């Protein structure tokens, strides 16, 4: 048997409180699904968006690193420029000090001297100055010896002058120049006699050999002493 058709009461019952609750549940479930789906999409979108704070920090670090490199590069460039300026100034000073660097040929007067030429000319000039210094030192040493000799002669002459002043009558008993000449003549005559007897003048070689032999034999201190004593005794006998 088929169920009887629903009457107005049954229809009202179907749309009663239980029916409305079921409809509201379904509607809420559908809205909840939409909200959860939206939240899921939002979280996915949020996760796909990059973190701007981290990017700003990384960019700041990179910029600081690049700035430090730039500072080091700039400092290195400045130091290198100072070094080159100092070298250039040194070469310019050498060209101004060394005379040979200024004396250029007319053919190359318009050309700038290379660093190698400047250094070589500087070395040559320093060596020249060393030679001149050594030469001047030798001249100074010679002059000092001359000064010492003159001082000794000065002292001796002062002593002679003082001795004459202290004994004004001493010069009256001095030996005459003639007597001195006779003594000198007697000594030379004796030496010439031995020289003429011992030295041969046939050739230069014989002369050289005989002269050395004569000096060693007849010019010894004891031999000369005997000659002088003999001459003085002879002159004394002539005077008295």
UniProtKB/TrEMBL annotation:
CDD domains: bHLHzip_Mlx
GO biological process: positive regulation of transcription by RNA polymerase II
Keyword line: Activator, Coiled coil, Cytoplasm, DNA-binding, Nucleus, Phosphoprotein, Repressor, Transcription, Transcription regulation
Biased composition (Polar residues): 36-51
Chain intervals with Basic and acidic residues compositional bias: 58-70
Subcellular locations according to the entry: Cytoplasm; Nucleus
One GO MF term attached to the UniProt entry: RNA polymerase II cis-regulatory region sequence-specific DNA binding
Domain BHLH residues, every copy: 71-129
Coiled-coil portions: 126-153
Region (Disordered): 35-85
Primary role: Transcription regulator. Forms a sequence-specific DNA-binding protein complex with MAD1, MAD4, MNT, WBSCR14 and MLXIP which recognizes the core sequence 5'-CACGTG-3'. The TCFL4-MAD1, TCFL4-MAD4, TCFL4-WBSCR14 complexes are transcriptional repressors. Plays a role in transcriptional activation of glycolytic target genes. Involved in glucose-responsive gene regulation.
Subunit structure as annotated in this protein's UniProt entry: Efficient DNA binding requires dimerization with another bHLH protein. Binds DNA as a heterodimer with MAD1, MAD4, MNT, WBSCR14 and MLXIP. Can also bind DNA as a homodimer.
UniProt-recorded name of the protein: Max-like protein X
Gene transcribed to yield this protein: MLX
């Amino acid at each position: 048997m088929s169920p009887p058709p629903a009457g107005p009461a049954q229809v009202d019952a179907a749309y009663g409180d239980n029916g409305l609750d079921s409809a509201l549940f379904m509607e809420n479930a559908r809205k909840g699904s939409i909200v959860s789906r939206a939240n899921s999409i939002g979280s996915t979108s949020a996760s796909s968006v990059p973190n701007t704070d981290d990017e700003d920090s990384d960019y700041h670090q990179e910029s600081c690193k690049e700035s430090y490199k730039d500072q080091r590069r700039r400092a290195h460039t400045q130091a290198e420029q100072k070094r080159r300026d100092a070298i250039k100034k040194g070469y310019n000073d050498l060209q101004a000090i060394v005379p040979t660097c200024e004396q250029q040929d007319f053919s190359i007067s318009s050309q700038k001297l290379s660093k190698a030429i400047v250094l070589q000319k500087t070395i040559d000039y320093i060596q020249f100055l060393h030679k001149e210094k050594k030469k001047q030192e030798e001249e100074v040493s010679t002059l000092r010896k001359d000064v010492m000799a003159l001082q000794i002669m000065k002292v001796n002459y002062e002593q002679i002058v003082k001795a004459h002043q202290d004994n004004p009558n001493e010069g009256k008993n001095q030996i005459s120049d003639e007597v001195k000449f006779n003594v000198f003549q007697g000594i030379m005559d004796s030496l010439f006699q031995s020289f003429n007897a011992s030295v041969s003048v046939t050739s230069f070689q014989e002369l050289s050999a005989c002269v050395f032999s004569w000096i060693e034999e007849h010019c010894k201190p004891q031999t000369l002493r005997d000659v002088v004593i003999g001459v003085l005794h002879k002159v004394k006998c002539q005077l008295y």
